[in-house]
Amino acid sequence: MSFQAYLDTIEDKTGLTPRQLVEEAHAKGFDDPATKAGVILEWLKDDYGLGRGHGMALVHVIKKGPKIDPKHVGRPGPHGDEKDELWLDGKATKPADWGA
Questions:
Q1: What percentage of the chain has pLDDT greater than the value 90?
Q2: Which of 22, 14, 7 shows the shortest CA–CA distance to 47?
Q3: Most exposed: 4, 8, 88, 92, by fewest CB within 10 Å?
Q4: Residue 82 and residue 70: Cα distance in Å, rounded?
């Protein structure tokens, strides 16, 4: 599953866009460099029922922003993304050429 597909699935599971979840995480102080991934994963599991894989995709965005490593861009197969930036504003507003 591509990074973007993880975020799209998170929206399906929670009813919230990735940006809304990131904003909630920031309000809780989870963007603090001292906050460990486990704390964020626990919140996402308890409040939204997200598992580790989906949770870690959000941890990345919460801690590092929407940019991903270029090595994942254009990679063949189900794990490749088409862009080095993730769309956070929801599937309904994602441009058709954005990718999966």
A1: 71
A2: 14
A3: 92
A4: 10
One-letter amino acid at 98 equals: W
Query: Would you say 78 and 37 are in contact if contact means Cβ atoms under 8 Å apart?
Result: no
Give the whole-angstrom CA distance, residue 68 versus residue 81.
9
Tens of pLDDT, residue by residue over 25-68, are 999 999 999 999 999 999 999 999 999 999 999 999 999 999 98
Q: Which of 55, 67, 3, 54 is nearest to 30 (CA)?
A: 55
* Cβ–Cβ under 8 Å, residues 1 and 78: yes
In Å, the largest CA–CA distance within the chain is: 37
Q: Which long-range contacts (CB under 8 A, 24 or more apart) does 89-94 make?
A: 89/17, 89/18, 89/19, 90/11, 90/17, 90/18, 90/19, 91/8, 91/11
For residue 92, give the DSSP letter.
Answer: G
Structure tokens at 80: 């490749």
